Each structure stands twice: as structure tokens, then as C-alpha cells.
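Minutes, structural biology subgroup

Action item carried over from last meeting: produce the C-alpha cell record for Cadherin domain-containing protein (Callithrix jacchus). EB confirmed the sequence was re-checked against the source entry. Recorded below for completeness.
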Amino acid sequence: MMETRLPKAPEKRQVTAIFFLLLLWEAGSATINYSVLEERDSGSFVANLAKDLGLGVGELAERGARILSKGNKQYLQLERKSGNLLLKEKLDREELCGDTDPCILHFQVLLKNPVQFIQGELQLQDVNDHAPEFLENEILLKISEGSHPGTSFPLKIAQDLDVGSNTVQNYTISTNSYFHLFTRNHSDGKKYPELVLDQALDREEQPQLRLTLTALDGGSPPRTGTSQVLIVIVDINDNAPEFAQRLYEVQVPENTPIGSLVVTVSATDLDAGTHGELSYSFFQYSNQIIQAFEINSITGEIRLKKVLDFEEIQSYHVEVEASDGGGLSEKCTVVIEVMDINDNAPELTMSLLISDIPENSPETVVAVFGISDPDSGNNGKIMCSIQDHHPFLLKPTVENFYTLLTEGALDRERRAEYNITITVTDLGTPRLKTEHSITVRVSDVNDNAPAFTQTSYTLFVRENNSPALHIGTVSATDRDSGTNAQVTYSLLPPQDPHLALAYLVSINADNGHLFALRSLDYEALQAFEFRVGATDRGSPALSSEALVRVLVLDANDNSPFVLYPLQNGSAPCTELVPRVAEPGYLVTKVVAVDGDSGQNAWLSFQLLKATEPGLFGVWAHNGEVRTARLLSERDAAKHRLLVLVKDNGEPSRSATATLHVLLVDGFSQPYLPLPEAAPAQAQADSLTVYLVVALASVSSLFLFSVLLFVAVRLCRRSRAASVGGCSVTEGPFPGHLVDVSGTGTLSQNYQYEVYVAESSESQFKFLKPILPNFLGEGTGGRDSETNSNSRNRFGFN
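Output recorded by EB:
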């Protein structure tokens, strides 16, 4: 059967250092009461808890319902699926509660998600499973023959472990003509027998009587216990013993050593002889009394036979009888009160413990535990605390139960583990305490994205690298742990849609190593950039990105290319120099380019071979070929110069250019070409056109010069198959070649004016070469003289 107490209005109380009465976890929570008979078998049905709490059958399991009892002893068990509350074992009321009535066992129902406590009480009802029992099989009673009718004589009581109506309710005596029996009530509610004399006794007629005393309990059917009463009739003893006081009250601290004196009772008898000799004994005593105390029959000293325990029994009521030698006796009462001392440390019972708490969770229940102290007064008042520097707090719930909670969200990256010490201290003297340590681990949540060691990376790769070359490494770290900290690298789609990133680089997803997938060419691609992503393996996955710039370093993989004069099988042109030219006279200029960059493209010029050494010189930085001294009649008319063009790379690459120089006496003198040359006018014109086109292409689009040169070579070879020689175009050269950093390319202003004299003998007449101030770098005033001279050009095979 269940009873529900109406909820009391919650009262606001300040939680101080002393928690004697704890606040309820929820205001207005009800207490459920159940009752069950003792000695029922284990698994017996008590009640349907789910129905009584107004919950669905499955809701108890969903909320993790548990039954909590004081200490570690569990008397009840809960079937979560059905909601039935069952006995866990057979319960003996006398073992659990002794003579305490009613016998109440307290328990709590703990519901999680959310946390809720419900108080419960189980009343253990007594069954009549014990019969009354006298401590002595025979009771000796001495009565003076001079006793008057109506005199009463108390008898020793029977013991019955049952309570209520199942304990001793009545006493009877066997039928006789001298006595009848009354059942009296003690002040503590116990019943005792009292024998009443109906007629005068005569020792000489009947010296003793033997009667049967029967004790009956209130069970159905009643149980009985018997003892024999031997009544010895003695001679008249005029004076009965008399105690100095009828009531002795004494206090004894618990844990007093065995053998310690408790109290001394004293009685006197005015009779003389054996009638005045007194002996002391316990009267109407229980097992608890004779186990705890002993009395000296001569001196009346009461001493301890065992150590007293306040938590077991708080007081003893002892009846002491003083008997004289004549059979008369008197009785007194000794009340022994056991004084509590602080001999029990507080106890802590852990009911729920969650060791792993996810980080970033709000206020979370870590543990539920109960505390108790069996001492009394201040010795039993307890307080509970934890360390101040931890992000946890204690909340009192019900009936000395506490809940350990997190103050807020925890951060695993800040601290991954907490060691919490719960300290329970009483207020006794001296104070006793109990400490319980628990370890709370903060489990990881994927709340940190990977972070690159650098926001951007710059990598340098020399061109002409081997495929699959390791060009660098990106690195990212994640503050999380486990799989949440495992990082995977990837290439992000390039922002430039024309960049074929998948064909240029690849990345190792595990370690961030970057590899060049193919050989890079500086002349085609000097630099490119892309983004790299780092993603963890958590749920959800978090990622970050970094910028990677790849700079291709130039390698000296291109040799210098001579634009002028044309080489490689083309008909060489002859530069005409008047014999009257002074030293420093500009003969021609070797024009060359290099497809590399930087110092790899810095060109220098050197005269490698000459028909007559010392006659001509080449300027190292711009490729200008000039006369080194005055010409004379003794100098040969034809000269062949081999010019070396070398770049500044490591290792250095080079090319050569061959020049033909013809010394003439003057530009006005007609000069016939050599018979072996046999140049054709049309062929000279064609060669000039090719040269002008090539020079203009370099100035307008440098990168396509090599391709154009190949085309010119192919065209010239096809024409050379039919006619050969060098041709001169009628009219001036186009002047669109631009000087490149002074390294040998023709200046825009460097051009010639050439006129053709129509003659049947195909003679040439050169007039006014237009020479700008090329010699400003070192020739000074000779420029005016040089510009006044003319140059003739002839072709050789």
C-alpha cells in the first residue's frame, strides 16, 4: 500500500558551513510510503513505482531510475521495464530495528535526465515469528509466612522480540488455592506479572509451592512461554532491606574501558544475623543488561562487562534487588545514560559517478553521493566541501545527499583532467573528517580547427627539376586530441581558372609534403600560387587554409642567340671599311639575345679569332666591332672575324658569330664583286627583308624571336637552293630594333640609307650612313668623323 504525503511549501534557508537540514532538490517533492510484512521472500512485489510516480513504463528506464539507500545495503530493487519495486532479500524486522516500533527503512529514488530525487519510506510490519521466552526456567520466590492476604509479589518478565500486539500481552498462573495473578504495565509499556496472596501461608503446613507461569503474546494464534515459580515459605523476618535511594541516575561515556565502575547501590536491613545480611542482584533484566553490566552481590558495585556504544543503545534501565537472609527483598532502579563521544568519522557513500565529461557541455552532473555520521549532537553535525580552485560546485539535495556539478562548460585544451577531493567534516571535538577523491576526465570535442604554422609559404624551385621532386612542406596542428587532431592536407581549387594546378603540384594528405609533378620552365612560368587546406577528422570536420607561392628560379639552360649577323648557313654579309678610317671606327655591331633571365642573360662579347690580330676589337658589353688602329696599304683587303658571345650563367653558355670585313679605298670608287661571290640583286633584297623582320619581332615580342628565327631559316634554305648571294634592299633599313640593356641589340636609331645605282654592271653606290651617337660611351669627338664616312656591303659565298 502506498501513501503520498502532501508537499510542504519550500522554505528559503541559507546554506551555511553546517548542513544539518539540507534543502530539497525540487520544491514541493512528495514522499512515497510503502509497507510490507517481514520475512517475505526475496523478489516479493512491493508496489508499481512507475504508476505511483505517474510515469510511463518506459520512462523509468529512459531516465535511468535507481534506488538509493543509506550506506551500501540495498533492500529494494527496481525492474525498470515493468516499473515494479521488489524486495532484494528477506527482511527480518527484529534484526533491522530491534524493539523500535514502527520499523522504517528510508530510501531515495534517483531519476536522471534531469536529476530528480524522490524520498521513500518502507515500513516493515511485524509478524508473530517469536514466542515469549523467560530468561530463567525456574523463578525462586521466598515469601514470609507472616505475609497478609492481598500482598503482591512481582515476578520476572518474559522476553518477546516481536513488537506491538505480537509481543507479550498477558500472563497466567497455574490453578492453586493461595495465589492469583495480575498483569501489570511498566512505565515503558511492557507488561509484567504480579502474584497476589489470597490467604495466609503456613510454613509448617506447606513449606513450598511450585506453580507454572505462562506468558502469552497477542498473535493469532498466540504464542506462549513458561517458567516454573518455586515459592519457598520462610519464617518471619520483621524488616525488609531498604535502599538509600529508590532511583539511581548515572552517565557513562561510550568507549569507557571494560571493568570500569558505573555506580554502587546500597541498602540496609535493621534485622540482625542472617536476616540482616544483604545480597545484590539484577531483577527483571534483559540480555542487553547482563551482557553489558555485572553487579557485585556483596558490595553492590555495578561494573562494565563490555564497551558501550552510544550509536547502538543510548540508555539502560536496570532493576537491582537487595535480599536479606530471611528472604525479604527490596528493589531500586538504576538509569544508566550512555554519553556520546566523537568516535565515528563521517561516512560518504557514492551513488552515481560520471568520470568522463564532454567539454563545452553546460552545467553537468558529475557525481551523486550521500553523507552521514552516526554520532549525535555536534558530533553528528557534518559539512561537506571541495577545493576552491576547481570549476565544480556542490549542491545539497535531500536527506544528506549532495550533487557534484560543473560550474560551466569545461575546456579540454585548457585542462584535460581534474582530481577532486570531497571532504566531509563533523563538528565534534576533536573534529573527524573523511576524504574521498575522484578523477574527472574531460573528453574531447572537435572545437578547434587546424592552424597552419604560417599563413603563407614561399617555395623556391629551380627550373628543369625532375618530376616528383619534393619542393617543400606545409604544416598545421590541431589542439584537439585523438581523431579530432588528425589533419588531412589537400589542394584547394585555384582562383585562376587558367592555372592547371593538378598538373603542376601534388600534396601528401598525411604529412603536407608538396611535390612538383613535372619539370618547370622558367621561361614559360616564373611563379604561381595556390591555396592548401588542412582538415581534421572530427565530426563535424573543421578546416583552415594557407597560401603557397612557388617561385621558379632560372637555370642557365639557354645559350645566347645571335640575331645579327645571321649565322648557320646563311650567306655571310661583308662589312665595308674605308682604309682612311681612324681608330675606333664602328665597323658593325653583333646583336644577340639570351632566353634566360637575371645574370644568366647578361651577355659579354669577345673577339675570338681574327685574320689580322690587333686590327679590330670588340666591345665586351655591347658587341660593337671597331677598328683598333689606323689602317694602312699593307693591311689585307679581306678579313674574317670570329666573335664569341657568352652569358654570365653558371656554367656559362656561349655562341659565335662570323663577320667578313672588306677594306676599300673609298665609297665613291666603284667596286665589282668577286667572281666567286656572283651575288644577285634579288637575293640581297630578300636577305635584308628577313633581317628587318627579325629585328622588329625581337623589339615587339621578345618571347617569339626563337620561333621566328626558325621560320626565317626554313624560308632562306628554300630560296638558297636556286640562287645564292647577299642582297641589299633599295631604300633605308627600318629602324625598329630596340637596344636591350646595352647587351648588343641594335638601337632604334641605328639605320642605314642605301641607294642602288641602276647599271648594267650591277654596281652599288652607298651614300650617307645615318649613325647616331653610339660612341658617346667612349669615342668622344670621333663620332662626327665616323658619321661622315660611308660603308659598303658585299656578299660572299
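Discussion: Residues 25 and 397 are 4 Å apart (CA to CA).
Next step: EB to file the record with the rest of the batch.
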